[in-house]
Structure formats: C-alpha cells, structure tokens
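for the record, two folds in this file. i put them one after another cuz i was lazy. first one right below, seq on top, structure tokens after. the second one comes after a little note so u can tell where it starts
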Amino acid sequence: MSDAYLQLDKLTLAYGDTVAVKDLDLSIAKGELVALLGPSGCGKTTTMRAIAGLLNPASGRINLDGAEITRVSANKRAVGLVFQSYALFPHLTVYENVAFGLRLKGLRGQDLNAKVNAGLKSVGLAKFSGRKPGELSGGQQQRVALARSMVMEPKVLLLDEPLSNLDARLRLEMRAELQRVQKATGVTMIFVTHDQAEALALADRIIVMLNGGIEQIGTPEDIYNKPVSSFVADFVGFENIFALKDGKLATPNGPVALSAAAPDGAAG
C-alpha cells in the first residue's frame, strides 16, 4: 500500500538454522488496528518480535514512519510492547509501574505526574494509582500494562495475545476497551492472536499466517466471506468445506452444477 506507515520488505527470520518466517512482505497504514492471526508455530509472534526489535532479521528490511529501523535497538525504535503476561512489577504501585519508562527517559515532577495521571485516566484506572498489581483483577492489570506502553507515545503498539489470560466476560469487555483506546489515540496497533473471534471483532484488517508466510490479508468481512483457501475457511470456523472442479461442486457421486457463480477466492 502506498501510504504504508510500517513496511516489512522480504523479511526472513530464523532461530539458528530453522527459518520461522520467509520473505515476508507487509504494509500497515498509520492508525490501523491489525491482527496477526494463525495457529501456533505460524510465525506471528516471531514477526511481532522482529518489529519490536527483539529479534534481528536474517535478511530483509523494516521501515517505520519513513525511516529504516531494521537494526535499531528495541529501546530506540518507538515501538511499544504489551506482553501476554503483562510483565508488571509486583512491588511497585500502579502509578510507579506506569511511570517507570517515563522516569528512564528523564521525566520528573509535574510533567511526570501529568503524563501518568492522564495515562491512568485514559484506561479508567485513575482511582487505582496507589494499588499494587496483586490487588487488581486480570483486566485491570492488563489496562495498567496498556497505560504503561501508551504514555511512552509509541508509533506502533504491539500486543502479544492480549486477552488470552482473561475469562470470557472480561475478554469481551477488554475487546471494547482496546478498540476505544486505539480509536481515541489513533495509535497504530498490531495484536497477535490465535482466536478467530477476537480478530474478527477487533481488527480493521487481518493477516492470516501459515508456515511462516501470509495466507491472506483482508478486512474481517473479506476473511470470513471470501477465504482464499480451505485452510483460511477452516481456521475462521467453517465446518462444511466443499471442493470445486471446473466451476462445479465435486461430490462422491459426480460434479454438481451451482445455481450461482462461486465466490471470489473459492478453491478450484
């Protein structure tokens, strides 16, 4: 896409001799909310780690906001990361957790206080600043982790399976919360998930990955209504998948003509 804010060009990622992602091309626009969706081992978390600066590519380039960041260290590339485990400091208060990165950047006094309080207010935790993480629910802990990343004003915010540790009710609440924060701030957000419903409900676009490559990119509507392969159709929840041959439905009793044209992307 011509208005790419984050661009991955021919990105190859490996662990030793094992290639996890091969020649990946991906463009993400500023302000998009994007899901990296796929089964375990497909390369989605590895791709996220490379964007964050936690894994050096074997080859390829990463560009962000017009600058190449392929070899830029993680702490200098303006990319935030919320871990699946939240990685909160248990001995620090909510306020101190959110302030931690800002203090490392040299912020002090009223400026620090204003940013931390604004961050906590943005996620609805202004009244919890004096509590320790152990005194919070799972959803509240995740919001602390989100605020801690957001106050750093990242160009891109990465979330590693952000809802997987929550119960079903909290997952629904946090879906709405993530969407609200993303729309309110306009931050470019990429989240990794293997939960199809989560990706379909949250994302502007979904990147379906398989075996270290991209199987399909599209809006939730495109992914659900026009899967390009039987894998995508199966992964997003279709149980009845039929093969087409020469535009006809293949059955054990022979081909059956369709009453309407097959949808775009139907496998032949």
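(here's the note) second protein begins now
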Amino acid sequence: GTCIRLTKGIDRFSEDLDFDIKALSHEEFTKMTDDVIRFLQNNGLNASARDSNNPNLKAFRRNIYFPELLFQLGLSGHKAERFLIKIESQDQLIDYPSQMVNIKGAGFYFPMPVPSDA
C-alpha cells in the first residue's frame, strides 16, 4: 500500500512499512531502522524502537513508538495511548522485474526500485 501511495499518488495513509528486500542482514535492518529513529528524533519527535522477536516470523520487524504523541496532538485523552509505525522486511522469494521511480514527498526526492507495471 505504501509503495502504491508513493509511486502512484493514491490518497492512503499507512502506519506499516513492509519491504521486500533481497539479501538484507538483520544487522543492516537494525541500522536502517536506527537511522529512521535518529532522523525522527533530530526533527523533534520522541521516538523509540521495540524489536519484535517472534520465532515463527521470518521477517525482520521493529516497532517505532511515539509516546504521548496522540495525547499531545489532542487525538486522545489518554497520555498512555501510543502511536506506532511497524517496519518489516522479508525477502518474498519472488523474482519480478523492477523499474526505477522517483519518490517525492516530505521534502525528499530520491530514486527507488519498485515492481514494474508490466
């Protein structure tokens, strides 16, 4: 869903980011998500990670929590209510043709390989 929103411009919000990444180690995944958290913190957001270790899950998964964010924005009357973004990566073991598209949003512009429309 997120890929379609970013590459095709549909009006959709997702708080889960799922990636099909080939040959990514757990250490690389952790570093990538640590970089995301550092970016969020450097931009004034209180963010922290919790690893999801499920022996039945083959994907790498981390949840990024934003303590008290919903309360601060007036979206919840409960300070303890948490907002989270789930980031997950797993090789889907499917070979598909990809194409490069330019992603633009939130002040960023960068190329990214995505599944082709073919």
